[in-house]
Design a protein that fits this description.
Binds and transfers iron-sulfur (Fe-S) clusters to target apoproteins. Can hydrolyze ATP. Helix content is about 35%, strand content about 20%. The chain is an alpha/beta fold and about 375 residues long. The structure holds adenosine-5'-triphosphate. Adenosine-5'-triphosphate binds near residues 269 and 306.
Length: about 375
């Protein structure tokens, strides 16, 4: 009898789709245990990603599923979150102190990649993760301004650097090392060497995620970094404009070529909401991100409007997720962050499917 009840409960849990992983709770491995004692049921759920602002809602859904049609009594529903390391690029050793590295990239400059990267990092933090950000945009390092950090980083041993800290993030940027008004005129190999040093010689402390604000484009620097940093996954930021989408496709293909899984696309500046009359308009065209996502079989992780507050709060060193945590825009960033982390949590499971071993047989 108790086995029947257990499988009935399991069946119901397999009908709950987690919007962040895109998978049901049973298939994703989130259901760790179902305990049955008479009519009382205990359900233990473990998510592989941070979801502080969603845990209670999930527990409610699970309780409802267990108790529906008087099936059983949900005596306890535990929902816990634990981030695991999902290193997927082969033959590379992980960065010390870092579980997962996520590149935020765009094909084209100026689409809002840095703004998205820092807001997503803050959103992951708000959802309960330990997060760092690395500014690899060497020709236009904007993380010092966006995170309200500055000054030369300290070096305890003359070789490694301590990351700067603000808003609960650990931050490192090439911008700390160069004068603000000095243009960077290094050649490609020097840039990649400097960026590799910055990534490996920073004393990151127990990070669940290191978010990298990638250099724009698919040139030498971006490609070399994608091949040499032990990346877990990438997220592509684009505007819905045709010209940005063409370049975003190139970025997506570059990551696929070097076997870095692309978790999805974030559409930035999708619509503009007039601050006077509230009229919403798709000034860069409608539905471009969704079409591109469909074409390449990756999810659209979410879209953000063109909103003056996103710019002004970022410029003031206090991006929207911390400046206005209860705003609808901050909620969107948090939802996208949970989707990024949720999809990443399934990567290890899907790895075998994504990169099958090819055996060539001599006939
Ligand atoms: N959704 C948005 N609404 C309003 N302003 C935005 C939005 N996203 C970004 N911006 C603003 O657009 C400008 C460019 O953004 P950002 O620096 O993040 O782009 P980027 O793609 O990283 O550029 P680059 O590659 O040149 O570094 C900034 O002034 C930023 O504040």
């Amino acid at each position: 009898m108790s086995q029947e009840l257990e499988s009935a409960v399991r069946q119901r849990l397999s009908q709950i789709i987690d919007p962040h992983t895109g998978s049901d709770l049973v298939a994703s491995g989130a259901v760790r245990a179902i305990g049955v004692d008479g009519r009382k049921v205990l359900v233990d759920i473990q998510l592989g990603y941070p979801a502080l602002s969603w845990q209670a809602e999930l527990a409610r859904q699970v309780k409802q599923a267990v108790e529906g049609d008087d099936l059983a009594e949900a005596a306890a529903v535990n929902v816990a979150c634990r981030v695991h390391a999902h290193q997927v690029q082969k033959d590379m050793s992980p960065l010390p102190g870092v579980k997962n590295i996520v590149a935020i990239a765009s094909g084209k400059g100026g689409v809002g990649k840095s703004t998205t990267a820092v807001n997503l990092a803050l959103a992951l933090k708000a959802e309960g993760a330990s997060v760092g950000v690395l500014d690899a945009d060497v020709y236009g390092p904007s993380l010092p301004m966006l995170t309200g950090t500055g000054g030369k980083p300290e070096s305890p041993d003359g070789q490694n650097f301590l990351p700067k800290r603000n808003h609960g993030l650990q931050v490192m940027s090439i911008g700390y090392m160069i004068e603000e008004d000095t243009p960077v005129i290094w050649r490609g190999p020097m840039v990649t060497q400097a960026l590799m040093q910055l990534a490996t010689n920073t004393l990151w402390e127990d990070l669940d995620y290191l978010v990298i604000d990638f250099p724009p484009g698919t040139g030498d620097i971006a490609l070399t970094l994608a091949q040499r940093i032990p990346m877990s996954a990438a997220v592509i930021v684009t505007t819905p404009q045709d010209i940005a989408l063409i370049d975003a496709r190139k970025a997506l293909k570059m990551f696929q070529k070097v076997e870095v899984p692309v978790l999805g696309i974030v559409e930035n500046m999708a619509t503009h909401v007039c601050s006077n009359c509230g009229h919403e308009e798709a000034i860069f065209g409608a539905g471009g991100g969704e079409r591109m996502a469909g074409q390449y079989g990756v999810p659209l992780l979410g879209s953000l409007p063109l909103d003056i507050r996103i710019r002004s709060e970022a410029d003031a060193g206090s991006p929207t997720v911390v400046a206005a945590p209860d705003s609808p825009i901050a909620a969107r960033y948090r939802e996208i962050a949970r989707r990024v982390a949720g999809r990443l949590s399934l990567q290890a499971r899907n790895k075998a499917i994504q990169f099958p071993k090819i055996v060539i047989q001599n006939s």
